[in-house]
Amino acid sequence: MVRRPLGNHHDGPDTLLVTSETTQTEQVAADTGNDDTENGTEDPRELITRARVVLWDFDGPICRLFAGHSAEGVADGLVEWLEGRGLHGLLTESERESPDPHVVLRAVDRRHPGSDLVTELEERLTQEELKATATAMPTAWADPLIRTLVALKLRLAITTNNSPRVATAYLESRGLTACFAPHIYGRTQELSHLKPHPHCLNRALRAMGSAPATALMIGDTPSDFLAASEAGVPFLGYARNERKEKLLRGAGATTVVNSLETVLTAVRQV
User: Fold this and answer.
1) 165-212 pLDDT per residue, tens
2) Which of 49, 40, 45, 104 has the alpha carbon at shortest distance from 72?
């Protein structure tokens, strides 16, 4: 059993346990040296007016994937599986204690890139993510916003660090598959292409024949913002609490909303 020190993995009933990207997210924001949260949120209508394609991050803007299936528990399970194979020394102490399963996966890939070990570990993470879809909590106003964008003839894509199989399973459970398919782009065997690398955004843009300037990304982490910036795609940040907003603004995001209802209202006014 992996023992981890208790930490502030939640800060209220509407705050998710630390999930994939969270640890990296906090480091990215810290590296910017900018913790200004006093900037006002810009009106998102201008971004929406220019957009013909909307790229969505999955875990966060669309749902809280690990709302009922602890990401920390998933990370523990991956570490225990490695230790069961005699690979205790493969991870540093901080990596073994991370509540983020992507930290474990990335660490193993750095040391054994392209190996069968990485392939099997990634599949174990995918299976845990698939289990999490059963208890995932829809983000407030996400479903009606998605359907409204489609009704207005905007094209949508998923660009996520989660497995595309997981996003597909969740969308099917909500009757939203047709709003995105076939444009669901997620984690591949090339783990160096996870955001903040813009790979999945570029895949979506190429497949949809969209120029970056006519697209919009909706994301909730600095890695989403950095990937969008690298791809040349305008960014709309979703921050469900003050901590998330601080991280986004610290990374440089200037348009941040605390509820997707704000975006839905803006869309209806365009």
Assistant:
1) 999 999 999 999 999 999 999 999 999 999 999 999 999 999 999 999
2) 104
What is the DSSP code (8-state) at residue 151? H
Task: Give the bridge partners for 56, in sequence order.
Answer: 158, 218
Tell me, what DSSP letter sits at residue 270?
-
Distance CA 71, CA 99 (A): 7
Please give the model's pTM, rounded to 2 decimal places.
0.84
Structure tokens at 16: 């998710």
> Which helix (DSSP H) or strand (DSSP E) does residue 92 occupy?
none
- Exposed/middle/buried for 54, CB within 10 Å: 0-12, 13-18, 19+? buried
Return all residues near 120 (Cβ < 8 A) that are at least 6 apart. Answer: none
**Which alpha helices (DSSP H) does the chain contain, by range?**
22-32, 45-50, 71-84, 93-97, 101-111, 116-132, 142-151, 164-173, 177-180, 199-208, 222-231, 242-251, 260-269
As beta bridge partners, residue 159 has 185
Give the 3-state secondary structure of residue 235.
strand
Backbone φ and ψ for 143, nearest 5 degrees, come out as -60, -50
Structure tokens at 206: 């190429």
Query: Count H helices, E strands: the chain?
Result: 13, 8
